[in-house]
Amino acid sequence: MILIDETDKDVAIPFVIPSAIVDRRTGKHILSYINTTRKPMSRIFAAKTVLGTRPAPRAAAFSSKGPNSLTPEVLKPDITAPGLNILAAWSPAAVGNMKFNIISGTSMACPHVSGIAALVKAVHPSWSPSAIKSAIMTTATILDKQHKPIREDPDGRRANAFDYGSGFVNPTRVLHPGLVYDSQPEDYIDFLCSIGYDKRSLHHVTGDNSTCDGAFKKPFDLNYPSIAVPNLEDNFSVTRVVTNVGEARSIYKSVVVSPAGVNVTVVPDRLIFRRIGQRIKFTVNFKVAAPSKGYTFGFLSWKNGRSQVTSPIAVRVSSAGFGLVR
């Protein structure tokens, strides 16, 4: 059997009969050959491993994409990791005593990130889950092996934060992020309150008697390593707090690439740390500069001579955010 993958998802599928999967372009050639040849013939060759696929990584066509449908103030996805056609151990009890299998999806990407998180926790046992998550997100890369922007399947367009989140996970940098965006459980309780949770709803999540006494005014206030503004009208500000986990005495300067149609400024634009564990708050200001359609993307990076701490930014300008004079 020849299966034409019309969606170009590139996913390996095990079959019980000799089979091959081809993309749309190859499929059209095969169909043309079959339809124009009196006795079409084909041969099956032994499988072979292909190394050095280019470009790589790519954002898989089946991968969950943003924006966040439930809470658009939190940019999703968070991170991208290897998840296409991954050869891994498999429970023999699952299918016919098979010890290994090739699987695609979050089921494969998640173990990669979990292993990296375990590595970070082993080296930094005092770090909170949020600090570990921040380290993974802010050290990710948005470039492929050829140092070009990551592309998205199946169209090959340039991917954005709604395709890969903060980028492709980079284990070589994650142990030394320089700065982290840390949050505690009570911060997440306040966040849930800000999106409408009451005491009963909170109890289902926390299992305790938490209340909304100290709730954020807006869900934007969660100290997240990324920033999303889903409905910008004229101007808006969000605050973040970073904690120094790098050199005790260090200075970071902000570098901003503003989303199209939006001016982004950071106050202060320099962070001066004098000790490990020191926390500094800063404000990110957004102002509509020109009309734009849908979401546009940028990033904020804090840089010093050794570290680069990068957060993706996604902004959608409201139709009321840019008036027309007739």
From TrEMBL:
<protein>
    <submittedName>
        <fullName>Uncharacterized protein</fullName>
    </submittedName>
</protein>
<dbReference type="InterPro" id="IPR041469">
    <property type="entry name" value="Subtilisin-like_FN3"/>
</dbReference>
<keyword id="KW-0732">Signal</keyword>
<dbReference type="InterPro" id="IPR023828">
    <property type="entry name" value="Peptidase_S8_Ser-AS"/>
</dbReference>
<dbReference type="InterPro" id="IPR045051">
    <property type="entry name" value="SBT"/>
</dbReference>
<feature type="domain" description="Subtilisin-like protease fibronectin type-III">
    <location>
        <begin position="221"/>
        <end position="315"/>
    </location>
</feature>
<keyword id="KW-0720">Serine protease</keyword>
<dbReference type="Pfam" id="PF00082">
    <property type="entry name" value="Peptidase_S8"/>
</dbReference>
<keyword id="KW-0645">Protease</keyword>
<comment type="similarity">
    <text>Belongs to the peptidase S8 family.</text>
</comment>
<dbReference type="InterPro" id="IPR036852">
    <property type="entry name" value="Peptidase_S8/S53_dom_sf"/>
</dbReference>
<dbReference type="InterPro" id="IPR000209">
    <property type="entry name" value="Peptidase_S8/S53_dom"/>
</dbReference>
<dbReference type="Pfam" id="PF17766">
    <property type="entry name" value="fn3_6"/>
</dbReference>
<keyword id="KW-0378">Hydrolase</keyword>
<feature type="domain" description="Peptidase S8/S53">
    <location>
        <begin position="49"/>
        <end position="148"/>
    </location>
</feature>
